[in-house]
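User: Hey, my collaborator sent me this sequence without any context and asked if I could get a structure. I don't really work with proteins. Can you help?
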Amino acid sequence: MDGLGDAAKEYIVGSAAGVAQVVVGHPFDTVKVKLQAHNTTAHGKVYKNAFHCTSRILVEEGIRGLYKGASSSFIGIALESSLFFGTYAQAKQLLQGKSEDCKPRLQVIIPSAACSGALISCILAPTELTKCRMQVQGKDVMYATRYSSPLDCAVKTLQREGVRGIFRGGLATLYREAIGNAVFFCTYEYSRYWMHNYIDSPQFSSNSGLVVAKDIGIGIMSGGLSGMAFWTATLPLDVAKTIIQTDHNPQSSRNPFRVLNMVYRRAGLAGCYSGLGPTLARAFPANAAAIVAWEYSAKILGIRRE
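Assistant: No problem. I've predicted the 3D structure and written it out in structure-token form, which is a compact way to encode the shape of the chain:
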């Protein structure tokens, strides 16, 4: 029963991490999606940069415009993070066995993270499709159909494009999550390990206030760096995913590499990394919040980690 209880707790703390990530990171994500959808077309750039995009959203739609599609993100990321962190923790424990060595091992981290990333891509594909379509439809609607809510978007997509339509961009999401999360957890585990080794001292261990400050500081740095590593490695795949998901033409290619080739020919390498600024600006605080929430929720629930 203890094993089952610990497993359930891992999924609960994963949800807490997801909620924290959405609260902090969604406005940055809205700017990123708008840049990816509108600055990679054959008609040229709609927004000069991330600041121009943000100011346009605030002027035309207000603060609520930055949180468009957030309800689907809360639902999707809470469930996704629960499965992601929970599956990662369980797979890591299974591969690590009863080894007393707490030093990170690539042969344990990479398959655990890649498997959990591939699993959550099945949830992320439809939830991100509704989120992206909500985010790109400003007041000047470019598409024939306007959506009043993420649910309305999902229903209309199903009616027009069927089940296959709601999973548009699924292959790009799978590649992004499997590769990106392997990079994320390698960065997290190694940076956390080396920071603890460097900072740990009798002074910290004898003062509970310093211990809390140290743990939060390491959580912020390791989480922030891991999030930036994830997006630096996978942003081109995310650009392809956004284009595939926001294109309403059912005949358009769903092959992320073919789409990326098209973007490269139109906009060069800068087009493949469209939205890099707001993505990295979001990645650090959002993932720092997620890791701190994950680690401290685990402590509250009594999950012991080395």
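In plain terms: The chain has one domain: 2-300. You can pass these tokens on to your collaborator as they are.
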